[in-house]
Amino acid sequence: MRITTILARILALKQTRIRAAHLDPEGLVLDVAPTTRVPICSGCCKRVHAVHDTYEGRRWRHLDVASLRLWLRYAIRRVRCPRCGVTVELVPWAEPQSWFTFDFEQHVAYLAQRADKTTISTLMRIAWATVGSIIERVVARHKPGDPLDGLRLIGVDELSYRRHHEYVTVVVDHERGAVVWAHEGKDAATLRAFFEELGNERCAKLEAVTLDLSAAYIKAVTDASPKARLIFDRFHVQRLAHDALDTVRRQQWRAADAEQKDAIKGTRFALQKNPWNLTDVEDGKLTDVQRTNRPLYRGYLLKETLARILDGGQVNVARDKLRDWIAWATRSRLPPFRKVARTIKKHIEGIVAYVATGLSSARSEGINGKIRPITRRSFGFHGPRSLIALIKLCCGGIILAPVHT
Ligand SMILES: [Zn+2]
């Protein structure tokens, strides 16, 4: 049997003829061609008859054969399309803008759902930024129905990336535990774009939206879906207290004498942790803070108490306790906490609504816990589009299989 025939069997590339095989320093190079004689326009996918006189030699990376890099080589025809003008023909093994075959891209995306950066780059022998562009294309090809259909209970969240200078807004379907929408930015306009895509009819079907306490998001939600209940989930509320505590810590540090500085030093994480996760050393640190720095310790107690209130399951109890907390924080002589108290007071019904709904904290924590490492993993990608694609790939319910012929 001829080598080209064997390779054709092994690779099983659709509508592709293998003409010759060569070994060169970069690996195994196959000369291929589409089986269709009439070229297809890569712009509109229609057959075009007028072949422009130039050809463009290209190489596409395909899956390795016996750990040897495999390349498809073909002089792509330039075509004159009545609709698209002069463009190149469509090839059956790859997307017009890609230098990788469909199979190669699917394999990379399958790995990106499961493996870390180094594993993928080393195994597939491609740069991490290239992985980003590949998954953008795979996610765009993967369209299993409209993810925005049937939404009732959604969550809106912002993610920071690139050292917290840039943001992506993410919309989650709480019922399916999947990301249904993501876009660059974190202002009202970003979220309005989501509601525009959703359309009036589907907006009206939203029953509840969990979100953080940012005025921009709140306005966008109430404008688009006035009947949806606003729910401020506990993580966002607690984040306010965490940030306030950190501000207090920094203020106390600046005003402290030597002994107090010593007590504050290295407490940042101990203060933010749940008490049951503290190490003995951290526990000792907090005791020092309690002894030498009453305002900082008061902040710590405020933060902890707020968390315990939100642990509760009864709306009326939670509401009463929150009111007590607001009064305490207002008297605390800690301006950052007084500010938090004002915010909580303003949105108290939305905060106790969290306690009232069946929205388990484990659920939104689960999806958030999945998205955050992805944000860290996206470091090295060219831009937010790759990050968004990775989020959709890993949290959007996309099911992929490895390529096996
Ligand atoms: Zn065309």
Keywords:
single chain; 405 residues; alpha/beta; five-stranded mixed sheet; 50% helix; 20% strand; binds zinc ion
Q: List segments where confidence is low: pLDDT < 50 over at least 5 consecutive residues.
A: none
Helix content: 40-55%
H and E string: HEEEEEHHHEEEHEHEHHHHHHHHHH
So what's the overall shape?
Answer: elongated
Mean pLDDT: 90
Proportion of beta-strand residues:
15-25%
- SS summary, helix count: 16
What's the alpha carbon Rg, rounded to whole Å? Answer: 28 Å
Distance between the termini: 19 Å
Strands, total number: 10
Which structural category fits the helices and strands?
Answer: alpha/beta
How would a crystallographer describe the biggest sheet?
5 strands, mixed
Which ligands accompany this protein?
zinc ion
Question: What would you say this structure looks like, in words?
Answer:
This protein is α/β, with parallel strands linked by helices and 405 residues long. The chain contains 16 helices and ten strands. Strands 1, 2, 3, 4 and 5 form a five-stranded mixed β-sheet that branches. The protein has a five-stranded mixed β-sheet with strand order 8-7-6-9-10, with helices on both faces. Helix 7 runs antiparallel to helix 13. The longest helix is centred in the middle third of the chain and has 22 residues. The mean pLDDT is 90.
Tell me briefly what this model is:
The protein is an alpha/beta fold. Helix content is 50%, strand content 20%.
